[in-house]
UniProtKB/TrEMBL annotation:
Gene3D superfamilies: 1.10.287.130, 3.40.50.2300, Histidine kinase-like ATPase, C-terminal domain, PAS domain. It catalyses: ATP + protein L-histidine = ADP + protein N-phospho-L-histidine. This is histidine kinase. One of its GO terms (biological process) is regulation of DNA-templated transcription. It comes from Desulfomonile tiedjei. Residues 770-993 form the Histidine kinase domain. The modification 4-aspartylphosphate is found at D1064. Its EC number is 2.7.13.3. Residues 74-126, 449-501, 707-757 form the PAC domain. Residues 1013-1129 form the Response regulatory domain. SUPFAM superfamilies: ATPase domain of HSP90 chaperone/DNA topoisomerase II/histidine kinase (SSF55874), CheY-like (SSF52172), Homodimeric domain of signal transducing histidine kinase (SSF47384), PYP-like sensor domain (PAS domain) (SSF55785). Residues 1-70, 127-172, 250-292, 377-418, 502-544 form the PAS domain.
Length: 1132
C-alpha cells in the first residue's frame, strides 16, 4: 500500500504492459499526461496512443526488440496523441517485468512529458539562428569580447571588411589591440559592466594594412551562457567626417565671400524673414537686421511711397511666381536709405534649393546719372546730325541701316527714311566690290578717311561720293557697327577726271606696268622706254634709238636674231589677220651687261604707235625648273624611303608612297581616294580621339610647328601596328598642305614591353634572394641540431622518428627556398641532359590526377627530340603549373594538349625579341580550349601575385614561377590567347649541339671528419653555435667570429694553425666578400669555404671568382658540410 501511494503521488507517469504492449496498469500521472481516464487506458495497446503509423511501427519494433531479451536503449522518445487531439512529446525509460524464474512477462516504463522542454529548445535554436543571421549581416562591425580578459570571442563579416583581419585572426586578439590608444580603450572597457555600457566620441583606429579611419564606438554588457560578455558596435564614419569637414570649409568660404563681397547680400527664408545681412548691405542702406527683420518691414521703409511700393511688390511677386530654382531675375528700383537718401539699386534675386532666397544689390546711382547725361548728349548730337547737308549713317557690319539723316535720303534719291532704311547697304554701291574693300579696310585699320567711290541712286543713276567711316567694336572686340559721313562729289570728280584723262592715259598705262614696255612709231623709231624696260635690259633711249639697234644688242648672232624676229613678226601678222590677241613668243634675250633673260614678246598698235610688251619670265622659268627638279628628287626619295609619306590637302590625300601602302595594306589607288574621315578610321578606335585632338591642336597652333605623336593603326587585314607620325605644314602646288611621315615602331614597342617585363622580374628576384638568405639561416639551425642529436644517440625509437621528421621538414624547406630562388633566377637549377618528351610521359600520371576527367589529355611528342640541359624537378613544376592554369580556364571541360618538337630560331625572329639568340631549340607547347584572355590581361600574366581569380582562390604566382624557371634555364616563353578560343604557351629551351645521354645519379657516403683547426664566421649566434658543435663532433677544432673584422683579427692571431675559413657572405660591418679579399691579402694561400643562404650564382659566384675554394648552400646537413670541408682541406 505504501508503494501504491508513492506511485500515485509522483509527477512522472508509470505504465505497465505485457510483452506485446497491452496496458495492465497506469498511475494517475500517466492518465493526466494523455488526458484519458484509467478505464480508457487499461486493456488498450500502448500502440494506440501513437500519433501516426510510422510512430506505431517504430514503437512496435522497439517492443519486439526488447522482448527478445536485448537490453532496450534508454531513454526512448515518441510523439503521442491526447484525447483531445493534441500532440505531446514523451520520454520513456523502459525496464523489464520478470516472474520468479526470471522470464520476461512485460515492461514497466517511466513516462515524462517533455513537450514544453522541446518547444523551449526549438525556440532557443531559432532565436540563436536569428541572432547569428543578424550578427553576420549587420553593416556595422560587431565584436563580442570577454568582459574580464577583453579577448575577442566573435566578429562579424563587417569587422573583416573594416579592419582587413580574418575571423581567425580576430579570435586570437584582444579588443585594445585594435585601437591606436590601447591603454585608454582597456580602461574604458573595464568600466562597461559597471556603467552599463558607454558610447565614445569619434576616434581614430588603424586597419591591418596601417590605414587609419575614424569610428564611432558603442559598447554594452550582457551575459552569454553565464559568461559576462561585452558587445562593441563600431561604425566607420570617415567619409561622413570628411563630408562634415568639407561642409564646414564651404560654410566658412561662403561667409568669407559674403563678408568681403562688393555687393549687398541678404538671405530670406520661405516665410519672408531676413536671416542674414552682409556688411556691404548695411553700408549701402544703413539698416540693421533689427530695423528690417522681414520683407514687410523692408518694403515699408525702403519704399515709403505707397504707389511706388505697390509697383515694387507687384514686380517681386511676378518674379517669384515665374522663376525656377537657380534662375536669376534682375530688377532696378529706387530705394530710400535709413538716412533718407535715395539710391538707384540693381537687385538680383535667386531661389535656392533649400527654399531660401538670396538677393544681391548693387548701387548704380552714379552710373545711372552718367547714362542720363549721355542720353541728353545723344539727343543734342541727333539734332545736329538731322540738319547737316552731308549724309550721316549708322549700319551693322552686314549692311542693315540702324540710323540715317535726311541728307543721305535726298542724296540717294529715296522717298523717305523708312524706304532707305529697308534697303540693304550693298545696293547703294555701283560696284559691290567697293563695299568689300571698305569692310576689309575697316577691319584692318578701324577707320577710313575720304575714300572715293561710285554710288547708285534708287533709279540706278551713278554718282561719286567721298566717305569717311569708323568701325565700332563690341565689349569682346567683335565688329559691332559702322558709323560714317557721305558727301556727293560727282561734280568735282567729273572735272578732275576730264582734266587728267588726256594727260595720264598713256603714261599710267606704260610707266606703272610691271612689264618692260617700249613705244615706237610705225618706222621703228623708239619714242619711250618705261622704267621696267631700263631696269630689265640696262638700255636707255640713247642706247637703242631704233628697234634695229635693240635687235642687234639682244642677238649678237645675226642669223639667230633674224629667226627670232621672223617668228615674232609671223605671230604678230597672224593675230592681226584673225583679229585676236597675238600669241606670246618666249625667247632668250641678251641684256646690255651680257646676262641672258627669258622674255615673253607681245605687240599692240594704238593710234599709229606700236607698244612692245616684254615680260621678263626668267625667274618664273627658273622656279619652274627648280620645282620640277625638286619634285623629281622628292618623288625619288619618297618612293625609295622605308618611311610612309603622304600629303593631305583640302581634306583629301594628294600623294602617298609605296611604303604607306605597305604599312596600311591598302593600294595606292585606295589611299588616294581617302579623305580625313577615312584616315581617322585607319586609327585604332581607342586612339581616334588622340588623332582628332592632335589634328585640332595643329589647326589652332602655329602652322610652322611640327606635330609628333604615336598611335595604333589597324591594317586592311586587321593587324594592329604602332606608328610614330610627324605632321608638318608645307606648300604644295602653291597652296598649304600637310606632309605626313609615319614610321612603323611596332618592333620598338614590343622591345620596350619586354624590357619593362624583365625589369619587373629583376625587382622581384632581388626581394626573393634576400628572403631566402634569412630562411636558410633558420633552417640551418634546425637541421644542425637534429643531426647532432641523432649522432650523439641515446634516444628512443619514437624520438628518432620525430628527429627524422624534423630533418625532412628542414630539407623540404630548403628545397622550397631553392624553388623561390629559381623563380627569381637567384639559384642555379640542378641541371642534367633531359629528353622533354620523356619528362612529359614521366609526369603524365600526376598530370592526369591534377586535371578532372571532363578535360581530355592529349600529347603530340616528337620521338627524335634533341636533348636539353634542365632540372627534372623544375620541368615537372612547370608542367604542373601550366596544367593547373589550363584546368582553371576550362571549368566546363575541354582539351589540354602537350606538344614537343625540334625548332630553329632565326635572325628575323630575334630582331623583334632581343632577349633570344638564334640557334637550335626544343619547343614545349601547352594548349587549352578555355575561355582565353584579353590583351590587357595577357600583358600582366607573368607578374607575381597578379590573378583574375576571386580572393582566396589563387596566389598569382603560378605563371610567374614558370617564367622564372624558364629564364633560369636560358629559355624563352610566349603566350597566345584569344577570347573564347583558348590559350597556348610556347617554351623554347636551348638544345645540346650533340647527342647527349642523361647523367646517372650518384650516392654520397658519410665522409670522414678531421683534426684540423677551422674558423667559422657568421653573424647569427644560433648558426655559429650549431655549426661549431657539428664540426667538433667530427673531430675538428673550431674558432668562431661574429663579423668580418673579428674574423680578420682571429685569423691574424692563428694564421699558421687555421686550415680552413668557413665564411658567410651577408654580415654587418664588413661583407663576406670584403673579408675574403682581406684574408687573401694576409695569406694569399688561405683556403676559404663560402657557406651562404644565397644561391651559388650572384654574390656567391663573385666570391668564388675572387679566390674562395668552395661553396656550400644553407641549410646543410652534417654529411654535406663535412664533404665540402674535406674536399677543400685536401685541395692542393
Amino acid at each position: 500500500e505504501k508503494y501504491r501511494e508513492l506511485v500515485e503521488t509522483i509527477s512522472d507517469g508509470i505504465v505497465q504492459t505485457d510483452c506485446v504492449g497491452t496496458v495492465t496498469f497506469a498511475n494517475s500521472a500517466y492518465c493526466r499526461i494523455l488526458g484519458l481516464e484509467i478505464g480508457e487506458i487499461i486493456g488498450k495497446s500502448i500502440l494506440d496512443f501513437q500519433v501516426s503509423d510510422p510512430e506505431r511501427r517504430k514503437l512496435r519494433s522497439f517492443l519486439e526488440y526488447a522482448a527478445s531479451q536485448q537490453p532496450p536503449p534508454a531513454p526512448w522518445f515518441g510523439t503521442h496523441q491526447t484525447k483531445h487531439g493534441g500532440m505531446i512529446v514523451l520520454q520513456c525509460d523502459w525496464n523489464y517485468r520478470r516472474d520468479n524464474q526470471g522470464h520476461i512477462t512485460g515492461f514497466i516504463a517511466v513516462v515524462k512529458d517533455i513537450t514544453e522542454r522541446m518547444q523551449a529548445e526549438d525556440a532557443l535554436r531559432e532565436s540563436e539562428e536569428k541572432y547569428r543571421l543578424l550578427f553576420s549581416h549587420e553593416k556595422d562591425a560587431i565584436l563580442l569580447s570577454d568582459a574580464e580578459t577583453m579577448s575577442i570571442l566573435d566578429a562579424n563579416e563587417s569587422c573583416e571588411k573594416l579592419w582587413g583581419y580574418s575571423r581567425e585572426e580576430f579570435l586570437s586578439m584582444r579588443i585594445p589591440s585594435l585601437s591606436d590608444e590601447p591603454e585608454k580603450t582597456e580602461k574604458a572597457l573595464a568600466g562597461v559592466t559597471r556603467l552599463g555600457g558607454y558610447e565614445v566620441s569619434p576616434r581614430r583606429l588603424r586597419k591591418k594594412d596601417g590605414t587609419e579611419f575614424i569610428a564611432k564606438i558603442s559598447a554594452n554588457p550582457f551575459t552569454l551562457k553565464g559568461r559576462p560578455v561585452v558587445c562593441s558596435i563600431v561604425r566607420d564614419i570617415t567619409e561622413r567626417n570628411r563630408a562634415e569637414e568639407a561642409a564646414e570649409i564651404e560654410k566658412r568660404r561662403f561667409e568669407a565671400l559674403a563678408e568681403n563681397s562688393p555687393f549687398g547680400l541678404v538671405m530670406t527664408d520661405d516665410a519672408g524673414m531676413f536671416r542674414y545681412f552682409n556688411p556691404k548691405f548695411r553700408e549701402m542702406f544703413g539698416y540693421e537686421l533689427k530695423d528690417v527683420p522681414n520683407g514687410k518691414e523692408w518694403l515699408n521703409k525702403a519704399y515709403p511711397d505707397p504707389v511706388y511700393r505697390r509697383q515694387v511688390i507687384s514686380a517681386w511677386l511676378e518674379d517669384l511666381s515665374n522663376s525656377s530654382i537657380g534662375e536669376h531675375r534682375p530688377r532696378v528700383f529706387t530705394v530710400t536709405c535709413k538716412d533718407g537718401r535715395k539710391k538707384i539699386v540693381h537687385f538680383r534675386q535667386v531661389q535656392l534649393q533649400t527654399g531660401e532666397h538670396l538677393m544681391t544689390s548693387e548701387d548704380i546711382s552714379a552710373r545711372w546719372q552718367a547714362e542720363e547725361k549721355l542720353r541728353q548728349s545723344e539727343e543734342k548730337y541727333r539734332q545736329l546730325v538731322e540738319h547737316l547737308n552731308v549724309g550721316v549713317f549708322e549700319s551693322t557690319v552686314d549692311g542693315a541701316f540702324t540710323h540715317i539723316n535726311p541728307a543721305i535720303v535726298r542724296m540717294s534719291g529715296y522717298g523717305s527714311p523708312e524706304e532707305l532704311m529697308a534697303t540693304p547697304a550693298h545696293r547703294l554701291y555701283a560696284d559691290v566690290s567697293d563695299r568689300k574693300k571698305l569692310i576689309s579696310a575697316l577691319m584692318d585699320k578701324g577707320s577710313v578717311n575720304c575714300i572715293e567711290m561710285r554710288s547708285s541712286k534708287k533709279d540706278g543713276t551713278e554718282y561719286w561720293i567721298s566717305m569717311t567711316a569708323v568701325l565700332a567694336r563690341g565689349d569682346k572686340g567683335e565688329p559691332d557697327r559702322i558709323t560714317g559721313i557721305v558727301e556727293d562729289i560727282t561734280d568735282r570728280k567729273k572735272a578732275a577726271v576730264a582734266l587728267s584723262e588726256s594727260e595720264d592715259r598713256l603714261r599710267k598705262l606704260i610707266d606703272h606696268s610691271p612689264m618692260a614696255m617700249a613705244v615706237t612709231d610705225m618706222n621703228g623709231e623708239v619714242k619711250y622706254l618705261n622704267k621696267r624696260f631700263i631696269q630689265t635690259f640696262g638700255c636707255t633711249l640713247q642706247d637703242i634709238p631704233t628697234l634695229e639697234y635693240w635687235w642687234q644688242l639682244a642677238y649678237p648672232d645675226r642669223p639667230h636674231g633674224d629667226r627670232v624676229r621672223s617668228e615674232w613678226l609671223h605671230a604678230t601678222r597672224e593675230s592681226s589677220e584673225k583679229g585676236t590677241e597675238p600669241e606670246p613668243v618666249e625667247r632668250e634675250v641678251r641684256c646690255k651687261d651680257g646676262t641672258i633673260r627669258v622674255i615673253d614678246f607681245r605687240k599692240t598698235v594704238v593710234d599709229k604707235l606700236v607698244i612692245h610688251t616684254l615680260h621678263d619670265i626668267t625667274e618664273s622659268k627658273r622656279q619652274e625648273q627648280a620645282l620640277r627638279e625638286s619634285e623629281l628628287m622628292f618623288r625619288l626619295l619618297s618612293e625609295q624611303s622605308l618611311m610612309s609619306v603622304a600629303i593631305l590637302q583640302d581634306g583629301i590625300y594628294k600623294y602617298a608612297n609605296q611604303a604607306m601602302s605597305d604599312l596600311c595594306e591598302y593600294s595606292l589607288e585606295e589611299i588616294l581616294s581617302w579623305g580625313y574621315e577615312e584616315f581617322l578610321q585607319l586609327a585604332n578606335p581607342d586612339d581616334r580621339f588622340l588623332v582628332m585632338k592632335q589634328a585640332r591642336m595643329k589647326q589652332l597652333g602655329d602652322p610652322a610647328q611640327e606635330a609628333n605623336y604615336t598611335f595604333r593603326v589597324v591594317t586592311k587585314s586587321g593587324k594592329t601596328k604602332w606608328v610614330e607620325i610627324y605632321s608638318k605644314t608645307i606648300q604644295y602646288n602653291k597652296r598649304s598642305a600637310n606632309l605626313l611621315t609615319m614610321i612603323d615602331i611596332t618592333g620598338r614597342k614590343q622591345a620596350e614591353e619586354q624590357l619593362l617585363q624583365s625589369q619587373k622580374m629583376e625587382a622581384i628576384g632581388t626581394l626573393a634572394g634576400g628572403v631566402a638568405h634569412e630562411i636558410n639561416n633558420l633552417l640551418q639551425v634546425v637541421l644542425g641540431h637534429a643531426d647532432m642529436i641523432l649522432i650523439r644517440g641515446g634516444i628512443d625509437e619514437k624520438s628518432g622518428q620525430s628527429l627524422e621528421a624534423i630533418r625532412r621538414a628542414a630539407r623540404n624547406g630548403g628545397d622550397l627556398v631553392n624553388k623561390i630562388l629559381a623563380f627569381s633566377r637567384k639559384t642555379e637549377p640542378q641541371k642534367r641532359p633531359l629528353n622533354l618528351s620523356h619528362e612529359v610521359r614521366r609526369v603524365e600520371e600526376l598530370l592526369r590526377r591534377t586535371i578532372p576527367r571532363m578535360i581530355s589529355f592529349e600529347k603530340s611528342l616528337e620521338d627524335n627530340l634533341r636533348m636539353v640541359n634542365a632540372d627534372p624537378s623544375q620541368i615537372e613544376q612547370m608542367l604542373l603549373n601550366l596544367a593547373v592554369n589550363a584546368r582553371d580556364a576550362m571549368q566546363e571541360g575541354g582539351r589540354l594538349v602537350f606538344e614537343t618538337r625540334n625548332v630553329t630560331i632565326r635572325e628575323e625572329y630575334c630582331r623583334t625579341h632581343p632577349e633570344v639568340d638564334p640557334g637550335k631549340y626544343v619547343l614545349l607547347s601547352v594548349s587549352d580550349t578555355g575561355h582565353g584572355m584579353a590583351k590587357g590581361i595577357m600583358d600582366r600574366i607573368f607578374e607575381p601575385f597578379f590573378t583574375t581569380k576571386q580572393p582566396g582562390k589563387g596566389t598569382g604566382l603560378g605563371l610567374s614561377m614558370v617564367f622564372g624557371l624558364v629564364k633560369s634555364h636560358g629559355g624563352h616563353i610566349t603566350c597566345y590567347s584569344e577570347g573564347g578560343v583558348g590559350s597556348t604557351f610556347k617554351i623554347y629551351f636551348p638544345a645540346f649541339a650533340d647527342d647527349v645521354q642523361p647523367d646517372l645519379a650518384t650516392t654520397i657516403e658519410m665522409p670522414a671528419g678531421g683534426t684540423e683547426k677551422l674558423l667559422l664566421v657568421d653573424d647569427e649566434d644560433s648558426v655559429r653555435t650549431v655549426g661549431s658543435e657539428m664540426l667538433e663532433l667530427a673531430g675538428y677544432t673550431v674558432l668562431t667570429a661574429t663579423n668580418g673584422r673579428e674574423a680578420l683579427e682571429v685569423y691574424r692571431n692563428n694564421r699558421d694553425s687555421i686550415g680552413l675559413v668557413i665564411l658567410d657572405l651577408v654580415m654587418p660591418e664588413m661583407s663576406g666578400r670584403k673579408c675574403l679579399e682581406e684574408l687573401l691579402k694576409i695569406n694569399p694561400n688561405a683556403k676559404v669555404l663560402i657557406a651562404s643562404g644565397y644561391a651559388a650564382n650572384g654574390p656567391a659566384k663573385e666570391a668564388r671568382e675572387s679566390g674562395a675554394v668552395g661553396f656550400v648552400t644553407k641549410p646543410f646537413d652534417l654529411k654535406h658540410i663535412l664533404l665540402a670541408i674535406r674536399k677543400c682541406l685536401d685541395m692542393v
